[in-house]
């Protein structure tokens, strides 16, 4: 595969890839959803579902041995990849199909544009179940690798260092030869997942010599999730920029005002494109998990408020109970993460290593404090509405939708939101 005459067409330099991703993200966030985002998602769903089902069948047929021990010495912290303890870090690390900030933003920003009525929300629920299944398959694919090889891929530690930690490297050179790519020292999870998936697929009957192909195929499978993050994430960020900016300049809030749409999308794409191009994304990435789950907690907080204002307090357990759990776990994780960053910054050898850790500690603290403030204020209002009988006023306007999907799931026409006891303007 690497020796193919076509390899040069796909072996692109990092700046070229960044520009291509930025261009795609800009177009996907500006164009109507039915034109690019929806059909791209629709087509990629077939590949995602097919690959996951095939991977599950491969696991059932081959029954590959789980090389990773059930519990390692890092369960209490100090791991080379995740420094914290299993609880609560597992909840701020694995987000596939979980309650999270990104999922809540997509569920409130793009999913409603693809369905006609609330009863069709099962589409989104089914997608979350499928993504949970993807997370389970990804864990299996990772655990079939020898622990030393897994750590050699996901860290920059030498083989001698890993061996001294009790994780000798066994097949890393063989794996690199089989997939025709050097896989050691490729942290992030994408490479180890692709190697694990390729190992399972190559074990199927008639697939013995195709591990390099399956490795690239697995990377393509992962890229579909990355594209979803780029297009949906950029679009949602554009909504947020327009809404916040609209408070200062009214027309910017209109989703059909093209200068505002283009400027907001360009600002969002420029921001994440700069972080990726300069490598600065690695500075803030370690605190992403905690920030993501705190945003998910705030989404449940908003959902609880909406239920109260709709006079459906009997359903509060649907949002309030998971909100309490997510808040407790994530705030605990943010607390521990803050002191981990501070401790690592204190032992850093130079300012260039200490500064990113200090920045992460500050960002984690700020995000956690803001989340606590919102939660406290919301709790005060819930008490007022439910116990003290405060009057419930609704001023939110429901924006009308347009054509979004060629598959027959069209949003409701513009109108008003009926709320028992009142009517939204």
Number of strands: 2
> What sequence of helices (H) and strands (E) makes up the elements?
HHHHHHHHHHHHHHHHEE
**Sheet with the most strands: spatial strand order:** 1-2
Spans of at least 5 consecutive residues whose pLDDT stays below 50 are 397-425
Q: Residue-averaged pLDDT, rounded?
A: 84
Helical content class = 55-70%
Taking Cα atoms only, what radius of gyration do you get, to the nearest Å? 24 Å
- Individual helix count: 16
Number of domains: 2
Largest sheet: 2 strands, antiparallel
Estimated share of beta-strand residues: under 5%
Strand-pairing-aware structural class: mainly alpha
| Distance between the ends | 60 Å
Query: What coarse outline follows from CA principal-axis ratios?
Result: globular
Which oligomeric form is depicted? single chain
Question: Explain this structure to me?
Answer:
- The protein has 16 helices and two strands.
- The chain is mainly α.
- It has two domains: 236 residues, no CATH class; 110 residues.
- The protein has a two-stranded antiparallel ribbon.
- Strand 1 and strand 2 form a beta hairpin.
- Helix 2 crosses helix 11, helix 11 crosses helix 12 and helix 14 runs parallel beside helix 16.
- The longest helix is centred in the middle third of the chain and has 36 residues.
- It is globular and about 70 Å long.
- The C terminus is likely disordered.
């Amino acid at each position: 595969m690497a020796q193919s005459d076509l390899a040069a067409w796909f072996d692109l330099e990092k700046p070229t890839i960044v520009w291509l991703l930025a261009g795609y993200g800009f177009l996907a966030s500006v164009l109507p959803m039915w034109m690019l985002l929806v059909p791209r998602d629709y087509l990629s769903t077939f590949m995602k579902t097919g690959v996951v089902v095939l991977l599950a069948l491969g696991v059932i047929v081959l029954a590959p041995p789980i090389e990773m021990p059930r519990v390692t010495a890092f369960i209490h912290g100090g791991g080379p990849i995740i420094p914290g303890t299993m609880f609560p870090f597992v909840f701020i690390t694995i987000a596939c199909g979980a309650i999270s900030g990104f999922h809540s933003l997509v569920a409130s920003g793009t999913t409603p544009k693809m369905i006609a009525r609330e009863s069709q929300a099962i589409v989104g629920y089914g997608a979350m179940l499928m993504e949970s299944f993807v997370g389970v398959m990804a864990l299996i694919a990772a655990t079939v690798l020898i622990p030393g090889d897994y750590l050699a891929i996901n860290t920059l530690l030498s083989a001698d260092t890993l061996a001294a930690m009790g994780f000798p490297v066994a097949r890393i050179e063989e794996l690199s030869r089989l997939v025709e790519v050097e896989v050691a020292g490729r942290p992030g999870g994408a490479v180890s997942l692709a190697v694990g998936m390729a190992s399972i697929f190559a074990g199927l009957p008639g697939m013995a010599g195709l591990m390099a192909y399956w490795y690239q195929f697995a990377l393509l499978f992962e890229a579909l999730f990355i594209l979803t993050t780029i297009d949906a994430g950029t679009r949602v960020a554009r909504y947020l920029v327009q809404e916040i900016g609209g408070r200062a300049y009214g027309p910017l809030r209109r989703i059909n005002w093209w200068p505002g749409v283009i400027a907001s999308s360009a600002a969002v794409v420029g921001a994440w494109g700069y972080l990726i191009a300069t490598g600065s994304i690695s500075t803030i990435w370690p605190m992403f998990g905690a920030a993501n789950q705190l945003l998910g907690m705030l989404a449940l907080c908003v959902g609880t408020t909406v239920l109260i204002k709709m006079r459906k307090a009997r359903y509060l357990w649907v949002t309030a109970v998971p909100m309490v759990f997510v808040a407790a776990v994530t705030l605990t994780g943010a607390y521990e993460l803050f002191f981990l960053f501070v401790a690592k910054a204190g032992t850093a050898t130079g300012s260039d290593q200490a500064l990113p850790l200090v920045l992460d500690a500050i960002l984690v603290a700020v995000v956690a404090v803001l989340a606590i403030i919102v939660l406290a204020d919301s709790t005060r209002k819930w008490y007022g509405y439910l116990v003290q009988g405060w009057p419930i006023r609704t001023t939110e306007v429901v924006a009308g939708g347009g054509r979004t999907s060629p598959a027959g799931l069209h949003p409701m026409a513009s109108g008003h939101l009926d709320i028992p006891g009142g009517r939204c303007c």
